[in-house]
């Protein structure tokens, strides 16, 4: 399967129009939807918002074909739920499936590693290159000061951080995976204790990070996580079934100006 991103054509002010069957999705709708789809750049947020609206319109039209009420917002949400209940076929995982998944991926069903973290946020929008460059330089300068005088972290957080945690001297407390934005979350999981030697990037700007303590996770026996394993496999099966269903609707109803991708099903489930 392939996808075609919305791309700005040189000399054009706006991307090409999007149509789902006979319905059109205008740029104002996409702009309103963007707030629900945070991303590293405005372009990525716009693309996610556009795909989400396409998925919703595909489902709305299919619900209408089946005679489900789609006249107002409340009707549409109820109709989509009824539609998916009727037409989505996701197999239930067996006990053998669950045990096999747990054996192959024990790290996914372990107690998570916990980190006690302090940080300073130097805010800069993803698409503001001058601010990003300036923030990185400021971060390097502050890290140099902290290497010389680590006891000044609270002071520097209170003076320089753009995160509300500055009022607590940058304290974030104990974090487990999933509690910060993904790009920062991934970086934190690999850091040793102590001050990290360079600023870490996220969609919010640059983070100066100290890991005060790590508590490594532990593997859990299957009986302790059987429900989690079954839920995970059920969710995967539902996502696969939903992806195939949406692609079939895309081919049947017709979509112009954008193509769906693997994230379309995930976004709808969330």
Describe this entry's structure for a reader.
It catalyses: [protein]-peptidylproline (omega=180) = [protein]-peptidylproline (omega=0). One of its GO terms (molecular function) is peptidyl-prolyl cis-trans isomerase activity. Belongs to the PpiC/parvulin rotamase family. This protein is α+β, with helices and mostly antiparallel strands. The chain has 2 domains: about 20-95 and about 225-270, no CATH class; about 115-215, Chitinase A, domain 3 (Roll), CATH 3.10.50.40. About 50% of the residues lie in helices and about 15% in strands. It contains 9 helices and 8 strands. The protein has helices at about 25-35, 40-65, 75-85, 95-105, 130-150, 155-160, 180-190, 220-255, 265-270; strands spanning about 20, 25, 115-125, 170-175, 195, 200, 205-215, 255. Strands 3, 4, 5, 6 and 7 form a 5-stranded antiparallel beta sheet that branches. It has a 3-stranded antiparallel beta sheet with strand order 2-1-8. The radius of gyration is 23 Å and the shape is flat. Mean pLDDT is about 90; it is low at about 1-10.
**Beta fraction:** 5-15%
Secondary-structure content class: alpha+beta
Determine the N-to-C terminus distance. Answer: 22 Å
Q: What is the helix/strand order? A: EEHHHHEHHEHEEEHEH
Number of strands: 8
How is the main sheet built?
5 strands, antiparallel
Helix content: 40-55%
Poorly predicted tracts of residues? 1-12
In DSSP terms (H or I, runs of 4 or more residues), the helix count works out at 9
Count of domain modules: 2
- What characteristic shape results from the CA principal axes? flat
Radius of gyration: 23 Å
Average per-residue pLDDT, rounded, comes to 89
């Amino acid at each position: 399967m392939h996808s075609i991103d919305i791309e700005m054509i040189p000399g054009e002010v706006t991307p090409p129009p999007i149509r789902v069957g006979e319905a059109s999705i205008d740029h104002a709708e996409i702009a309103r939807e963007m707030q629900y789809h945070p991303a590293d750049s405005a372009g990525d947020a716009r693309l996610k918002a556009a795909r989400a609206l396409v998925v919703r319109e595909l489902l709305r039209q299919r619900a209408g074909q089946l005679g489900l009420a789609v006249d107002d917002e409340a009707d549409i949400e109820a109709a989509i739920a009824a539609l998916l209940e009727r037409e989505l076929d996701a197999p239930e995982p067996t006990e053998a499936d669950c045990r096999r998944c747990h054996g192959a991926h024990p790290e996914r069903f372990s107690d998570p590693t916990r980190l006690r973290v302090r940080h300073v946020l130097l805010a800069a929008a993803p698409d503001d290159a001058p601010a990003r460059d300036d923030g990185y330089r400021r971060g390097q300068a502050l890290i140099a000061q902290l290497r010389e005088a680590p006891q000044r972290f609270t002071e520097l957080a209170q003076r320089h951080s753009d995160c509300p945690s500055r009022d607590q001297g940058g304290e974030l407390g104990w974090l487990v995976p999933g509690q910060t934005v993904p790009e920062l979350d991934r970086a934190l999981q690999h850091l040793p204790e102590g001050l990290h030697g360079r600023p870490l990037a996220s969609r919010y700007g640059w983070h100066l990070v100290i890991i005060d303590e790590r508590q490594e996770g532990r593997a859990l026996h299957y009986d302790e996580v059987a429900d989690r394993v079954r839920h995970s496999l059920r969710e995967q099966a539902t996502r696969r079934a939903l992806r195939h269903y949406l692609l079939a609707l895309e081919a049947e109803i017709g979509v112009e100006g954008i193509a769906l991708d693997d994230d379309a099903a995930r976004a709808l489930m969330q």
